[in-house]
UniProtKB/TrEMBL annotation:
Family: Belongs to the class-II pyridoxal-phosphate-dependent aminotransferase family.
A Pfam family: Aminotran_1_2
Name under which the protein is recorded: Aminotransferase class I/II-fold pyridoxal phosphate-dependent enzyme
PROSITE patterns on file: AA_TRANSFER_CLASS_2
Top-rank taxon: Bacteria
Species: Zarconia navalis LEGE 11467
UniProt keyword terms in alphabetical order: Aminotransferase, Pyridoxal phosphate, Transferase
């Protein structure tokens, strides 16, 4: 067979796109999409370097702009206490732990962070990984396999989907937030599988909406399934004290099997966690590939997440302020007749535009007027569902929000 293949190659029968990245059809398609975005005037809007700390403002090319592009919901990134904790950790432990924690990379900060997360979420324990995306991929793929079924919300984040694929389990996307459809699928299919995982998110960052968590818990209990909630955008932003979507609905933390979250948003760091039962966490710590075969979270990242958690506990009013700002944004946007999607109370506010190129032009026009807000286009969202996505932070001022919505209301009618 090898000989035949070599002969085919010699005869030129193996097409060049099979062994040259610069001829990958997918790459050529990407280049075309980038060219059409660049032709709209602002050059390439991706990988644009931003100076300083992204809070209510950012600095691009020497210009200060009002910023809605990052997930610094609680203003913890740049908080002096959080930065100081990271600096102290570097002085004490250096910049890396230089090994897997299982073998020789364990530092006191690691357990301190995991205990603090478990305490905050209300679970027996937690495990911290080096990336949020990696947390979902490795945990889901590791806990489930060929005899199992994973049901995930159709708007789930890529990391959930990748974990599902890698697991080798049967996978089914159920219609967004539709626990009744989920219930029906489980009625029909539960008995064909051993373990079943239902994966949802606490806040969906494309639309800013939330799941009806108590209903999902009822369904998972009825069918003896595991429930995983990705709190990337809900930890720190939902519930009176920022303890997440569980606090928002007043559910018992033990009713969810895997509370997943990232450290990169409300907690001003980099990494991800799974909070749950002692057994789950212990099992993952000795066996999850993305934990066992990866370096431990770096000292400054661990320390900044611990410090951000402490600040949040000491100043829960940051959460209330974030929601006040978001409510102001939404109500002004509604007055202007803008389409803010299905969830008016969210801290992630989509402005639905529809056409991809129009959303790029709109983002460019706002940029010229001192507002930085990224667009979201296909394939991140379905065709004709392009949007601008405003991430609010508790550091935005009322004046900034009024100026933004005023400008947006004007420009949206000028841009084609
Ligand atoms: N889950 C969700 C729902 C997310 O939105 C993200 C990132 N935006 C992640 C997981 C991955 O987190 P991280 O960026 O911290 O790797």
């Amino acid at each position: 067979l090898l000989e035949r293949k070599a002969k085919q190659a010699a005869k030129g029968e193996i097409r060049e796109e099979y062994y040259r990245f610069d001829l990958y059809p997918e790459y050529l398609q990407l280049k075309q999409q980038l060219a059409s975005i660049e032709s709209l005037g602002r050059g390439n809007p991706f990988f644009v370097p931003q100076e300083g700390i992204n809070r209510d403002t950012t600095t691009i090319g020497g210009r200060e702009l009002i910023d809605y592009g990052t997930y610094n919901y609680l203003g913890m990134c740049g908080d002096p206490a959080v930065s100081a904790a990271a600096k102290r950790a570097i002085e004490r432990y250096g910049t890396s732990v230089s090994a897997s924690r299982l073998i020789s990379g364990e530092k006191p900060l690691h357990r301190e962070l995991e205990r603090a997360i478990a305490d905050f979420v209300g679970t027996e324990d937690s495990i911290v990984y080096v990336g949020g995306h990696a947390t979902n991929v490795t945990t889901i793929a590791h806990l489930f396999g060929q005899r199992d079924l994973i049901l995930y919300d159709s708007l789930s984040h890529n990391s959930i989907f990748q974990g599902c694929l890698l697991s080798g389990a049967s996978i089914v996307a159920f219609p967004h937030n539709d626990w009744q459809a989920l219930d029906l699928i489980l009625h029909e299919r539960r008995d064909r599988y051993q373990r079943v995982l239902v994966a949802i998110e606490g806040v969906y960052s494309t639309d800013g909406d939330i799941p009806e968590l108590p209903a999902f818990i009822e369904v998972k209990q009825r069918h003896k399934a595991f429930l995983m909630v990705d709190e990337a955008h809900s930890i720190g932003t939902m519930g009176r004290f920022g303890r997440g979507i569980g606090e928002h609905f007043g559910v018992a933390p033990g009713d969810v099997d895997l509370w997943m979250g990232t450290l990169s948003k409300s907690f001003a760091s980099c990494g991800g966690y799974i909070a749950g039962s002692r057994a789950l966490v212990e099992y993952l710590k000795y066996t999850a590939p993305g934990f066992v075969y990866s370096v431990g979270i770096s000292p400054p990242n661990a320390a900044s997440a611990i410090a951000a958690l402490e600040r949040l506990k000491a100043e829960p009013e940051r959460v209330e302020r974030l929601h006040e700002r978001a409510r102001l944004f939404s109500s002004l946007a509604c007055e202007k007749g803008l389409n803010t999607g299905p969830s008016p109370d969210s801290v992630v506010i989509p402005i639905l535009v529809g056409d991809s190129l129009k959303s790029v032009r709109l983002s460019n026009a706002l940029f010229e007027r001192g507002i930085n807000v990224p667009f979201m286009i296909y394939p991140s969202v379905p065709q004709n569902a392009a949007r601008l996505r405003f991430f609010l932070t508790c550091t935005h001022t009322e004046a900034q929000i009024r100026y933004t919505v005023e400008t947006l209301g004007r420009v949206v009618n000028e841009v084609r």
